[in-house]
Design a protein that fits this description.
6-stranded mixed sheet, SLC26A/SulP_fam, transmembrane, 59% helix, STAS domain-containing protein, alpha/beta, two-stranded antiparallel ribbon, STAS_dom
Length: 603
Amino acid sequence: MCDNEDDLYRERLPNVCGAVGSKARSCCSMRSVHRYLPVTDWLPKYQWNFLAMDLVAGLTVGLTAVPQAIAYGAVANLPPAYGLYSAFMGGFVYILLGTCKDITVGPTAIMSLMVQPYVDGNPAYAVLLCFLSGCIITIMGLLNLGVLMRFISVPVTTGFTLAAALTIATGQVNSLFGISSSANGFLNTWIHFFSHITHVRRNDAILGCSTLVLLLLMRQLKDLPFGIKSVWKYISLARNAVAVLIGILLCYLLKKDGKLPFLVSGSITPGLPPFKPPPFHTEDTTTGEILNFGDMVSHIGSGLATIPLLSILESIAVAKAFSKGKIVDASQEMIALGVSNILSSFFSSMPITGSFSRTAINNASGVRTPLGGAFTGALVLMTLAFLTSTFAYIPKATLAAIIIAAMFFMVEYETIGEIWRAKKRDMLPFLVTVLSCVFWTLEFGMVVGIAFNALFLLYKSMKPQFHLETQKFNGIEVTMADLKGSVDYAAAEYLKMSIVSHVTERNSVGGTAITLVVIKGHEIASIDTTVALNLKSLREDLALLKCDMICWNWSIPAAGVVCRMDRKLRSMFKYSKSFPDLMQTMTNGEPAAVSCIAVDLSQ
Protein backbone atom coordinates (compact mmCIF):
# COMPACT_ATOMS: atom_id res chain seq x y z
CA MET A 1 0.00 0.00 0.00
CA CYS A 2 0.99 3.61 -0.49
CA ASP A 3 2.08 5.31 2.73
CA ASN A 4 0.34 8.54 1.73
CA GLU A 5 -2.97 7.24 0.41
CA ASP A 6 -4.83 10.49 1.03
CA ASP A 7 -2.28 12.48 -1.02
CA LEU A 8 -3.30 10.53 -4.13
CA TYR A 9 -6.66 12.31 -4.12
CA ARG A 10 -5.55 15.74 -2.89
CA GLU A 11 -3.77 17.98 -5.36
CA ARG A 12 -1.29 20.36 -3.83
CA LEU A 13 -1.84 23.78 -5.36
CA PRO A 14 0.74 26.55 -5.10
CA ASN A 15 0.25 28.99 -2.24
CA VAL A 16 -0.27 32.09 -4.37
CA CYS A 17 -1.14 34.38 -1.45
CA GLY A 18 1.88 33.24 0.51
CA ALA A 19 4.16 33.69 -2.49
CA VAL A 20 2.83 37.19 -3.17
CA GLY A 21 3.20 38.12 0.52
CA SER A 22 6.75 36.78 0.62
CA LYS A 23 7.62 38.68 -2.56
CA ALA A 24 6.11 41.88 -1.18
CA ARG A 25 8.09 41.56 2.06
CA SER A 26 11.32 40.87 0.19
CA CYS A 27 10.81 43.99 -1.97
CA CYS A 28 11.08 46.12 1.15
CA SER A 29 14.37 44.58 2.29
CA MET A 30 17.89 45.90 1.83
CA ARG A 31 18.66 42.81 -0.19
CA SER A 32 16.18 43.97 -2.84
CA VAL A 33 17.69 47.46 -2.79
CA HIS A 34 21.13 45.96 -3.43
CA ARG A 35 19.69 43.78 -6.19
CA TYR A 36 17.83 46.48 -8.10
CA LEU A 37 20.37 49.22 -7.38
CA PRO A 38 23.73 47.42 -7.29
CA VAL A 39 25.67 50.65 -6.77
CA THR A 40 24.44 50.64 -3.15
CA ASP A 41 26.32 47.37 -2.67
CA TRP A 42 29.74 48.17 -4.14
CA LEU A 43 30.02 51.95 -3.58
CA PRO A 44 30.28 51.78 0.27
CA LYS A 45 33.14 49.32 -0.19
CA TYR A 46 34.94 51.54 -2.72
CA GLN A 47 38.60 52.21 -1.97
CA TRP A 48 40.57 55.22 -3.16
CA ASN A 49 43.23 53.04 -4.74
CA PHE A 50 40.52 51.71 -7.08
CA LEU A 51 40.10 55.18 -8.59
CA ALA A 52 43.39 55.22 -10.50
CA MET A 53 42.73 51.78 -11.98
CA ASP A 54 39.17 52.72 -12.99
CA LEU A 55 40.47 55.96 -14.53
CA VAL A 56 43.12 54.20 -16.63
CA ALA A 57 40.70 51.50 -17.73
CA GLY A 58 37.96 54.01 -18.56
CA LEU A 59 40.25 56.19 -20.67
CA THR A 60 41.72 53.14 -22.43
CA VAL A 61 38.22 51.92 -23.33
CA GLY A 62 37.33 55.46 -24.43
CA LEU A 63 40.22 55.51 -26.91
CA THR A 64 38.63 52.46 -28.52
CA ALA A 65 35.03 53.56 -28.07
CA VAL A 66 35.42 56.82 -30.02
CA PRO A 67 36.71 55.39 -33.33
CA GLN A 68 34.41 52.37 -33.03
CA ALA A 69 31.38 54.58 -32.40
CA ILE A 70 32.11 56.64 -35.51
CA ALA A 71 32.56 53.45 -37.53
CA TYR A 72 29.38 51.83 -36.18
CA GLY A 73 27.41 54.96 -37.00
CA ALA A 74 28.44 54.44 -40.62
CA VAL A 75 27.53 50.72 -40.43
CA ALA A 76 24.02 51.70 -39.30
CA ASN A 77 23.77 54.09 -42.28
CA LEU A 78 23.60 57.03 -39.88
CA PRO A 79 25.69 60.22 -39.69
CA PRO A 80 28.92 59.46 -37.75
CA ALA A 81 27.84 61.75 -34.89
CA TYR A 82 25.02 59.36 -33.98
CA GLY A 83 27.58 56.69 -33.17
CA LEU A 84 29.16 59.05 -30.64
CA TYR A 85 25.74 60.05 -29.29
CA SER A 86 25.22 56.36 -28.48
CA ALA A 87 28.54 55.84 -26.74
CA PHE A 88 28.35 57.75 -23.45
CA MET A 89 24.99 57.50 -21.65
CA GLY A 90 25.07 53.71 -21.26
CA GLY A 91 28.27 53.92 -19.23
CA PHE A 92 26.75 56.37 -16.74
CA VAL A 93 23.54 54.36 -16.28
CA TYR A 94 25.39 51.06 -15.89
CA ILE A 95 27.27 52.48 -12.91
CA LEU A 96 23.99 52.59 -11.00
CA LEU A 97 22.21 49.48 -12.29
CA GLY A 98 24.85 47.11 -13.67
CA THR A 99 26.10 43.99 -11.90
CA CYS A 100 29.32 43.22 -13.82
CA LYS A 101 32.26 45.57 -13.30
CA ASP A 102 33.77 44.89 -16.73
CA ILE A 103 30.82 45.51 -19.05
CA THR A 104 30.79 48.60 -21.25
CA VAL A 105 27.45 49.51 -22.81
CA GLY A 106 27.31 51.30 -26.13
CA PRO A 107 26.98 50.82 -29.89
CA THR A 108 28.17 47.49 -31.27
CA ALA A 109 28.72 46.08 -34.73
CA ILE A 110 25.80 43.67 -34.48
CA MET A 111 23.34 46.29 -33.21
CA SER A 112 24.45 48.73 -35.92
CA LEU A 113 23.94 46.16 -38.64
CA MET A 114 20.56 45.17 -37.21
CA VAL A 115 19.39 48.80 -37.11
CA GLN A 116 20.51 49.57 -40.66
CA PRO A 117 17.43 48.17 -42.51
CA TYR A 118 15.04 50.26 -40.41
CA VAL A 119 16.85 53.60 -40.69
CA ASP A 120 15.96 54.31 -44.34
CA GLY A 121 18.07 57.48 -44.29
CA ASN A 122 16.15 58.88 -41.31
CA PRO A 123 17.87 58.84 -37.88
CA ALA A 124 14.50 59.33 -36.16
CA TYR A 125 13.72 55.64 -36.67
CA ALA A 126 16.95 54.60 -34.96
CA VAL A 127 16.29 56.87 -31.96
CA LEU A 128 12.68 55.69 -31.59
CA LEU A 129 13.84 52.08 -31.89
CA CYS A 130 16.34 52.73 -29.09
CA PHE A 131 13.55 54.08 -26.85
CA LEU A 132 11.03 51.32 -27.60
CA SER A 133 13.68 48.60 -27.27
CA GLY A 134 14.64 50.02 -23.90
CA CYS A 135 11.02 49.96 -22.74
CA ILE A 136 10.56 46.35 -23.87
CA ILE A 137 13.83 45.18 -22.29
CA THR A 138 13.07 46.96 -19.01
CA ILE A 139 9.59 45.43 -18.77
CA MET A 140 11.03 41.97 -19.49
CA GLY A 141 13.60 42.48 -16.76
CA LEU A 142 11.02 43.62 -14.21
CA LEU A 143 8.91 40.57 -15.05
CA ASN A 144 11.97 38.40 -14.42
CA LEU A 145 11.96 37.06 -17.96
CA GLY A 146 15.73 36.65 -18.13
CA VAL A 147 15.09 32.90 -17.93
CA LEU A 148 13.89 33.02 -21.56
CA MET A 149 17.50 33.35 -22.66
CA ARG A 150 18.06 29.74 -21.56
CA PHE A 151 16.04 28.57 -24.55
CA ILE A 152 18.67 29.91 -26.96
CA SER A 153 21.42 27.31 -27.20
CA VAL A 154 25.16 27.85 -27.57
CA PRO A 155 25.28 26.46 -31.17
CA VAL A 156 22.65 29.00 -32.23
CA THR A 157 24.34 31.99 -30.57
CA THR A 158 27.75 30.91 -31.88
CA GLY A 159 26.36 30.53 -35.39
CA PHE A 160 24.70 33.93 -35.20
CA THR A 161 27.94 35.56 -34.04
CA LEU A 162 29.88 33.98 -36.92
CA ALA A 163 27.25 35.05 -39.47
CA ALA A 164 27.17 38.59 -38.06
CA ALA A 165 30.97 38.83 -38.21
CA LEU A 166 30.98 37.65 -41.85
CA THR A 167 28.19 40.05 -42.81
CA ILE A 168 29.72 43.06 -41.03
CA ALA A 169 33.22 42.43 -42.38
CA THR A 170 31.84 41.90 -45.90
CA GLY A 171 29.97 45.20 -45.67
CA GLN A 172 33.29 47.02 -45.16
CA VAL A 173 35.21 45.43 -48.04
CA ASN A 174 34.19 48.09 -50.56
CA SER A 175 35.19 50.93 -48.22
CA LEU A 176 38.50 49.18 -47.48
CA PHE A 177 39.42 49.49 -51.17
CA GLY A 178 37.85 52.91 -51.76
CA ILE A 179 34.86 51.68 -53.77
CA SER A 180 31.64 53.62 -53.29
CA SER A 181 28.80 51.23 -52.61
CA SER A 182 25.23 51.18 -51.32
CA ALA A 183 24.90 47.39 -51.60
CA ASN A 184 23.53 45.52 -48.61
CA GLY A 185 23.74 41.83 -47.78
CA PHE A 186 26.50 39.27 -48.05
CA LEU A 187 26.06 38.24 -51.70
CA ASN A 188 25.12 41.68 -53.04
CA THR A 189 28.19 43.25 -51.45
CA TRP A 190 30.59 40.73 -52.97
CA ILE A 191 28.86 40.96 -56.36
CA HIS A 192 29.23 44.76 -56.26
CA PHE A 193 32.89 44.49 -55.21
CA PHE A 194 33.94 42.16 -58.03
CA SER A 195 31.85 43.99 -60.65
CA HIS A 196 33.48 47.31 -59.65
CA ILE A 197 36.98 46.03 -58.91
CA THR A 198 38.38 48.32 -61.60
CA HIS A 199 37.20 51.29 -59.49
CA VAL A 200 39.57 50.45 -56.64
CA ARG A 201 41.33 53.59 -55.37
CA ARG A 202 45.02 52.87 -54.91
CA ASN A 203 45.58 55.18 -51.94
CA ASP A 204 42.56 53.89 -50.05
CA ALA A 205 43.44 50.24 -50.76
CA ILE A 206 47.02 50.68 -49.56
CA LEU A 207 45.92 52.56 -46.42
CA GLY A 208 43.10 50.12 -45.65
CA CYS A 209 45.17 46.96 -46.03
CA SER A 210 48.16 48.45 -44.20
CA THR A 211 45.94 49.57 -41.32
CA LEU A 212 44.37 46.13 -41.10
CA VAL A 213 47.80 44.47 -40.89
CA LEU A 214 48.96 47.08 -38.37
CA LEU A 215 45.95 46.45 -36.12
CA LEU A 216 46.49 42.68 -36.18
CA LEU A 217 50.18 43.11 -35.37
CA MET A 218 49.56 45.64 -32.60
CA ARG A 219 47.22 43.17 -30.94
CA GLN A 220 50.26 40.98 -30.32
CA LEU A 221 52.40 43.75 -28.75
CA LYS A 222 51.32 42.76 -25.25
CA ASP A 223 53.04 39.40 -25.74
CA LEU A 224 56.48 40.81 -26.59
CA PRO A 225 59.15 39.25 -24.34
CA PHE A 226 61.27 42.45 -24.10
CA GLY A 227 60.67 46.02 -22.97
CA ILE A 228 58.17 47.27 -20.41
CA LYS A 229 55.22 44.93 -20.59
CA SER A 230 52.70 47.42 -19.18
CA VAL A 231 53.63 49.96 -21.88
CA TRP A 232 53.23 47.39 -24.65
CA LYS A 233 49.91 46.31 -23.15
CA TYR A 234 48.36 49.78 -23.19
CA ILE A 235 49.68 50.56 -26.66
CA SER A 236 48.10 47.30 -27.82
CA LEU A 237 44.79 48.14 -26.13
CA ALA A 238 44.77 51.62 -27.69
CA ARG A 239 45.52 50.31 -31.20
CA ASN A 240 42.26 51.62 -32.69
CA ALA A 241 43.04 55.15 -31.51
CA VAL A 242 46.59 54.84 -32.92
CA ALA A 243 45.21 53.70 -36.29
CA VAL A 244 42.76 56.62 -36.39
CA LEU A 245 45.49 59.09 -35.45
CA ILE A 246 47.77 57.78 -38.22
CA GLY A 247 44.93 57.94 -40.75
CA ILE A 248 44.05 61.53 -39.82
CA LEU A 249 47.70 62.62 -40.00
CA LEU A 250 48.23 60.99 -43.41
CA CYS A 251 45.01 62.49 -44.74
CA TYR A 252 45.95 65.96 -43.54
CA LEU A 253 49.63 65.85 -44.57
CA LEU A 254 49.03 64.36 -48.04
CA LYS A 255 46.28 66.85 -48.91
CA LYS A 256 47.09 68.78 -52.11
CA ASP A 257 45.29 71.92 -53.24
CA GLY A 258 42.41 71.14 -50.90
CA LYS A 259 41.98 67.67 -52.43
CA LEU A 260 42.08 64.80 -49.94
CA PRO A 261 44.05 61.64 -50.82
CA PHE A 262 41.42 59.31 -49.32
CA LEU A 263 37.66 59.03 -49.06
CA VAL A 264 36.77 60.36 -45.61
CA SER A 265 33.88 59.82 -43.24
CA GLY A 266 32.83 63.44 -43.61
CA SER A 267 32.10 66.21 -41.16
CA ILE A 268 30.75 65.32 -37.74
CA THR A 269 28.17 67.61 -36.20
CA PRO A 270 30.06 69.52 -33.50
CA GLY A 271 28.83 69.89 -29.94
CA LEU A 272 26.95 67.79 -27.44
CA PRO A 273 23.65 66.19 -28.47
CA PRO A 274 20.58 68.10 -27.24
CA PHE A 275 18.51 66.55 -24.48
CA LYS A 276 15.06 65.96 -25.98
CA PRO A 277 12.39 63.24 -26.04
CA PRO A 278 12.69 60.59 -28.76
CA PRO A 279 10.75 61.45 -31.94
CA PHE A 280 7.19 60.13 -32.03
CA HIS A 281 6.58 61.59 -35.49
CA THR A 282 8.87 62.35 -38.40
CA GLU A 283 8.95 63.46 -41.99
CA ASP A 284 9.26 60.98 -44.83
CA THR A 285 12.61 61.63 -46.53
CA THR A 286 11.24 60.93 -50.01
CA THR A 287 7.69 62.33 -50.06
CA GLY A 288 7.91 64.92 -47.30
CA GLU A 289 4.79 63.44 -45.71
CA ILE A 290 4.45 63.69 -41.92
CA LEU A 291 4.45 60.22 -40.36
CA ASN A 292 2.81 59.72 -36.97
CA PHE A 293 3.84 57.30 -34.23
CA GLY A 294 1.76 54.45 -35.66
CA ASP A 295 3.36 54.86 -39.09
CA MET A 296 6.84 54.79 -37.57
CA VAL A 297 6.10 51.67 -35.52
CA SER A 298 4.66 50.01 -38.62
CA HIS A 299 7.84 50.86 -40.52
CA ILE A 300 10.03 49.35 -37.78
CA GLY A 301 7.85 46.22 -37.68
CA SER A 302 9.74 43.08 -36.68
CA GLY A 303 12.60 45.19 -35.33
CA LEU A 304 10.58 45.65 -32.13
CA ALA A 305 11.08 41.95 -31.46
CA THR A 306 14.51 41.20 -32.92
CA ILE A 307 16.42 44.27 -31.68
CA PRO A 308 15.51 43.82 -27.98
CA LEU A 309 16.10 40.06 -28.21
CA LEU A 310 19.56 40.38 -29.74
CA SER A 311 20.45 43.29 -27.47
CA ILE A 312 19.64 41.14 -24.42
CA LEU A 313 21.40 38.12 -25.87
CA GLU A 314 24.60 40.01 -26.64
CA SER A 315 24.75 41.80 -23.31
CA ILE A 316 24.06 38.73 -21.16
CA ALA A 317 26.56 36.68 -23.17
CA VAL A 318 29.21 39.30 -22.44
CA ALA A 319 28.25 39.38 -18.75
CA LYS A 320 28.55 35.60 -18.47
CA ALA A 321 31.93 35.61 -20.22
CA PHE A 322 33.37 38.09 -17.69
CA SER A 323 31.45 37.13 -14.55
CA LYS A 324 34.45 35.14 -13.21
CA GLY A 325 32.49 32.51 -11.33
CA LYS A 326 29.73 34.83 -10.15
CA ILE A 327 26.11 34.09 -11.03
CA VAL A 328 24.78 36.58 -13.59
CA ASP A 329 21.42 38.09 -12.64
CA ALA A 330 20.00 38.13 -16.17
CA SER A 331 16.86 40.03 -15.18
CA GLN A 332 18.84 42.82 -13.48
CA GLU A 333 21.16 43.03 -16.48
CA MET A 334 18.06 43.46 -18.65
CA ILE A 335 16.82 46.28 -16.41
CA ALA A 336 20.22 48.01 -16.64
CA LEU A 337 20.31 47.58 -20.41
CA GLY A 338 16.71 48.72 -20.85
CA VAL A 339 17.12 51.88 -18.78
CA SER A 340 20.39 52.62 -20.62
CA ASN A 341 18.54 52.50 -23.94
CA ILE A 342 15.64 54.61 -22.67
CA LEU A 343 17.86 57.40 -21.32
CA SER A 344 20.22 57.22 -24.31
CA SER A 345 17.29 57.81 -26.66
CA PHE A 346 16.88 61.27 -25.08
CA PHE A 347 20.36 62.05 -26.47
CA SER A 348 19.59 60.84 -30.03
CA SER A 349 21.14 57.40 -29.57
CA MET A 350 20.62 54.29 -31.64
CA PRO A 351 20.05 50.96 -29.80
CA ILE A 352 22.97 49.96 -27.57
CA THR A 353 24.09 46.84 -25.74
CA GLY A 354 27.13 45.29 -24.05
CA SER A 355 30.24 45.35 -26.24
CA PHE A 356 32.46 42.27 -26.12
CA SER A 357 35.58 43.94 -27.56
CA ARG A 358 35.46 47.00 -25.27
CA THR A 359 34.53 44.85 -22.27
CA ALA A 360 37.62 42.71 -22.97
CA ILE A 361 39.74 45.87 -23.06
CA ASN A 362 38.16 47.06 -19.82
CA ASN A 363 38.96 43.77 -18.16
CA ALA A 364 42.52 43.69 -19.49
CA SER A 365 43.07 47.27 -18.27
CA GLY A 366 42.36 46.18 -14.70
CA VAL A 367 39.06 47.94 -14.02
CA ARG A 368 37.85 47.42 -10.45
CA THR A 369 34.27 48.75 -10.49
CA PRO A 370 31.63 49.95 -12.98
CA LEU A 371 32.83 53.52 -12.28
CA GLY A 372 35.25 53.09 -15.18
CA GLY A 373 32.26 53.69 -17.47
CA ALA A 374 32.05 57.29 -16.22
CA PHE A 375 35.54 58.07 -17.53
CA THR A 376 34.74 56.42 -20.86
CA GLY A 377 31.57 58.50 -21.15
CA ALA A 378 33.45 61.66 -20.19
CA LEU A 379 36.05 61.07 -22.92
CA VAL A 380 33.32 60.61 -25.54
CA LEU A 381 31.64 63.84 -24.41
CA MET A 382 34.98 65.69 -24.64
CA THR A 383 35.41 64.34 -28.15
CA LEU A 384 31.98 65.63 -29.15
CA ALA A 385 32.68 69.00 -27.59
CA PHE A 386 36.20 69.68 -28.91
CA LEU A 387 37.44 67.15 -31.51
CA THR A 388 34.68 66.68 -34.08
CA SER A 389 36.38 68.89 -36.66
CA THR A 390 39.52 66.76 -36.42
CA PHE A 391 37.62 63.51 -36.94
CA ALA A 392 36.25 64.81 -40.23
CA TYR A 393 39.59 63.67 -41.69
CA ILE A 394 39.24 60.02 -40.70
CA PRO A 395 39.61 57.94 -43.90
CA LYS A 396 36.80 55.47 -44.57
CA ALA A 397 39.45 52.82 -45.28
CA THR A 398 40.79 53.25 -41.73
CA LEU A 399 37.33 52.81 -40.20
CA ALA A 400 36.72 49.78 -42.42
CA ALA A 401 40.01 48.23 -41.27
CA ILE A 402 39.08 48.81 -37.61
CA ILE A 403 35.73 47.05 -38.07
CA ILE A 404 37.15 44.13 -40.06
CA ALA A 405 39.95 43.62 -37.50
CA ALA A 406 37.37 43.52 -34.71
CA MET A 407 35.35 40.91 -36.63
CA PHE A 408 38.33 38.53 -36.76
CA PHE A 409 38.17 38.18 -32.99
CA MET A 410 34.40 38.31 -32.58
CA VAL A 411 34.10 34.77 -33.97
CA GLU A 412 34.12 32.14 -31.20
CA TYR A 413 36.62 29.75 -32.82
CA GLU A 414 37.23 27.77 -29.64
CA THR A 415 33.50 27.26 -29.05
CA ILE A 416 33.01 26.00 -32.62
CA GLY A 417 35.75 23.44 -32.03
CA GLU A 418 34.19 22.40 -28.73
CA ILE A 419 30.80 21.89 -30.38
CA TRP A 420 32.41 19.70 -33.05
CA ARG A 421 34.33 17.60 -30.54
CA ALA A 422 31.53 17.30 -28.00
CA LYS A 423 28.52 16.41 -30.16
CA LYS A 424 28.60 16.68 -33.93
CA ARG A 425 24.80 16.68 -34.14
CA ASP A 426 24.86 20.14 -32.55
CA MET A 427 26.65 21.38 -35.66
CA LEU A 428 23.29 21.19 -37.48
CA PRO A 429 21.59 24.11 -35.64
CA PHE A 430 24.93 25.95 -35.83
CA LEU A 431 25.14 25.58 -39.62
CA VAL A 432 21.44 26.30 -40.14
CA THR A 433 21.81 29.54 -38.17
CA VAL A 434 24.95 30.59 -40.06
CA LEU A 435 23.51 29.93 -43.52
CA SER A 436 20.12 31.49 -42.71
CA CYS A 437 21.72 34.64 -41.29
CA VAL A 438 24.25 35.05 -44.09
CA PHE A 439 21.98 34.36 -47.06
CA TRP A 440 18.70 35.69 -45.65
CA THR A 441 18.81 38.30 -42.87
CA LEU A 442 20.30 38.26 -39.38
CA GLU A 443 16.99 38.69 -37.57
CA PHE A 444 15.12 35.98 -39.49
CA GLY A 445 18.18 33.74 -39.51
CA MET A 446 18.28 33.89 -35.73
CA VAL A 447 14.61 32.91 -35.57
CA VAL A 448 15.23 30.02 -37.96
CA GLY A 449 18.13 28.80 -35.82
CA ILE A 450 16.08 28.95 -32.61
CA ALA A 451 13.13 27.18 -34.28
CA PHE A 452 15.37 24.48 -35.76
CA ASN A 453 17.03 23.87 -32.40
CA ALA A 454 13.61 23.71 -30.74
CA LEU A 455 12.76 20.80 -33.05
CA PHE A 456 15.49 18.78 -31.30
CA LEU A 457 13.84 19.44 -27.94
CA LEU A 458 10.40 18.56 -29.30
CA TYR A 459 11.68 15.37 -30.89
CA LYS A 460 13.38 14.37 -27.66
CA SER A 461 10.24 15.08 -25.63
CA MET A 462 8.18 13.00 -28.09
CA LYS A 463 10.32 9.91 -27.45
CA PRO A 464 10.75 9.32 -23.71
CA GLN A 465 13.65 7.22 -22.59
CA PHE A 466 12.48 3.84 -21.41
CA HIS A 467 13.63 0.27 -21.46
CA LEU A 468 11.38 -2.70 -22.25
CA GLU A 469 12.38 -6.04 -20.77
CA THR A 470 10.37 -9.25 -21.07
CA GLN A 471 10.98 -12.02 -18.55
CA LYS A 472 9.26 -15.17 -17.38
CA PHE A 473 8.22 -15.35 -13.74
CA ASN A 474 6.68 -18.61 -12.43
CA GLY A 475 5.44 -19.35 -15.93
CA ILE A 476 4.03 -15.83 -16.46
CA GLU A 477 5.40 -13.64 -19.28
CA VAL A 478 6.00 -10.19 -17.77
CA THR A 479 7.09 -7.04 -19.65
CA MET A 480 8.82 -4.40 -17.56
CA ALA A 481 8.80 -0.82 -18.92
CA ASP A 482 11.42 1.18 -16.99
CA LEU A 483 10.76 4.89 -17.63
CA LYS A 484 13.71 7.27 -17.39
CA GLY A 485 13.27 11.00 -16.86
CA SER A 486 10.09 12.96 -17.45
CA VAL A 487 7.06 12.01 -19.56
CA ASP A 488 4.86 14.81 -20.88
CA TYR A 489 1.91 15.02 -23.25
CA ALA A 490 4.09 14.96 -26.38
CA ALA A 491 5.44 11.52 -25.42
CA ALA A 492 2.20 9.96 -24.19
CA GLU A 493 1.11 8.49 -27.52
CA TYR A 494 4.59 7.15 -28.30
CA LEU A 495 4.71 5.36 -24.93
CA LYS A 496 1.32 3.75 -25.55
CA MET A 497 2.15 2.71 -29.13
CA SER A 498 5.51 1.22 -28.16
CA ILE A 499 4.10 -0.95 -25.37
CA VAL A 500 1.07 -2.14 -27.38
CA SER A 501 3.26 -2.92 -30.40
CA HIS A 502 5.73 -4.82 -28.25
CA VAL A 503 3.01 -6.95 -26.62
CA THR A 504 1.28 -7.58 -29.98
CA GLU A 505 4.53 -8.57 -31.68
CA ARG A 506 5.55 -10.92 -28.86
CA ASN A 507 2.13 -12.57 -28.80
CA SER A 508 2.07 -13.06 -32.58
CA VAL A 509 5.32 -15.07 -32.74
CA GLY A 510 3.85 -17.94 -30.71
CA GLY A 511 4.90 -19.28 -27.36
CA THR A 512 3.68 -17.95 -24.04
CA ALA A 513 1.68 -14.74 -24.40
CA ILE A 514 2.53 -11.69 -22.30
CA THR A 515 -0.10 -11.38 -19.59
CA LEU A 516 1.33 -8.56 -17.47
CA VAL A 517 2.97 -5.20 -18.20
CA VAL A 518 4.71 -3.44 -15.31
CA ILE A 519 5.49 0.26 -15.80
CA LYS A 520 8.17 1.35 -13.38
CA GLY A 521 7.95 5.10 -12.76
CA HIS A 522 9.84 5.98 -9.61
CA GLU A 523 11.85 8.60 -11.52
CA ILE A 524 8.77 10.42 -12.83
CA ALA A 525 8.06 13.51 -10.73
CA SER A 526 4.72 14.36 -12.30
CA ILE A 527 2.57 13.87 -15.42
CA ASP A 528 -0.19 15.82 -17.14
CA THR A 529 -3.78 14.92 -18.05
CA THR A 530 -2.84 13.76 -21.55
CA VAL A 531 -0.43 11.18 -20.14
CA ALA A 532 -3.06 10.06 -17.61
CA LEU A 533 -5.67 9.59 -20.35
CA ASN A 534 -3.19 7.63 -22.47
CA LEU A 535 -2.37 5.36 -19.51
CA LYS A 536 -6.07 4.67 -19.10
CA SER A 537 -6.39 3.97 -22.82
CA LEU A 538 -3.27 1.77 -22.74
CA ARG A 539 -4.73 -0.32 -19.94
CA GLU A 540 -7.94 -0.80 -21.94
CA ASP A 541 -6.04 -1.77 -25.10
CA LEU A 542 -3.92 -4.27 -23.18
CA ALA A 543 -7.07 -5.74 -21.62
CA LEU A 544 -8.32 -6.52 -25.13
CA LEU A 545 -5.05 -8.40 -25.64
CA LYS A 546 -5.73 -10.29 -22.38
CA CYS A 547 -2.87 -8.52 -20.67
CA ASP A 548 -3.01 -6.71 -17.34
CA MET A 549 -1.07 -3.52 -16.53
CA ILE A 550 0.23 -2.15 -13.24
CA CYS A 551 2.24 0.98 -12.39
CA TRP A 552 4.92 0.12 -9.87
CA ASN A 553 6.33 2.55 -7.28
CA TRP A 554 5.13 5.70 -9.00
CA SER A 555 5.62 8.96 -7.14
CA ILE A 556 2.59 10.35 -5.31
CA PRO A 557 2.25 13.48 -7.53
CA ALA A 558 2.37 11.38 -10.75
CA ALA A 559 0.03 8.65 -9.50
CA GLY A 560 -2.29 11.25 -8.03
CA VAL A 561 -3.05 12.75 -11.44
CA VAL A 562 -4.42 9.39 -12.64
CA CYS A 563 -6.28 8.58 -9.41
CA ARG A 564 -8.00 11.97 -9.27
CA MET A 565 -9.02 11.62 -12.90
CA ASP A 566 -10.56 8.17 -12.34
CA ARG A 567 -10.65 6.64 -8.85
CA LYS A 568 -11.18 3.18 -10.37
CA LEU A 569 -7.61 3.29 -11.70
CA ARG A 570 -6.17 3.30 -8.16
CA SER A 571 -5.94 -0.49 -8.32
CA MET A 572 -3.27 -0.42 -11.01
CA PHE A 573 -0.75 1.38 -8.77
CA LYS A 574 1.33 -1.02 -6.67
CA TYR A 575 4.09 -0.30 -4.15
CA SER A 576 6.74 -2.71 -2.86
CA LYS A 577 10.39 -2.74 -1.85
CA SER A 578 11.53 -4.99 -4.69
CA PHE A 579 10.30 -6.55 -7.92
CA PRO A 580 10.22 -10.11 -6.45
CA ASP A 581 8.03 -8.79 -3.62
CA LEU A 582 5.71 -7.26 -6.19
CA MET A 583 5.45 -10.49 -8.18
CA GLN A 584 4.97 -12.52 -5.03
CA THR A 585 2.04 -10.25 -4.16
CA MET A 586 0.62 -10.66 -7.67
CA THR A 587 1.04 -14.46 -7.91
CA ASN A 588 1.11 -15.53 -4.25
CA GLY A 589 4.06 -17.72 -5.10
CA GLU A 590 7.86 -17.85 -4.77
CA PRO A 591 9.88 -15.72 -7.18
CA ALA A 592 11.79 -17.59 -9.84
CA ALA A 593 13.43 -15.49 -12.52
CA VAL A 594 14.52 -17.18 -15.72
CA SER A 595 15.33 -16.07 -19.26
CA CYS A 596 14.69 -12.46 -20.26
CA ILE A 597 14.53 -10.55 -23.54
CA ALA A 598 15.30 -6.79 -23.45
CA VAL A 599 14.38 -4.06 -25.92
CA ASP A 600 16.05 -0.65 -25.40
CA LEU A 601 13.85 2.24 -26.51
CA SER A 602 15.94 5.00 -24.99
CA GLN A 603 17.44 6.14 -28.26
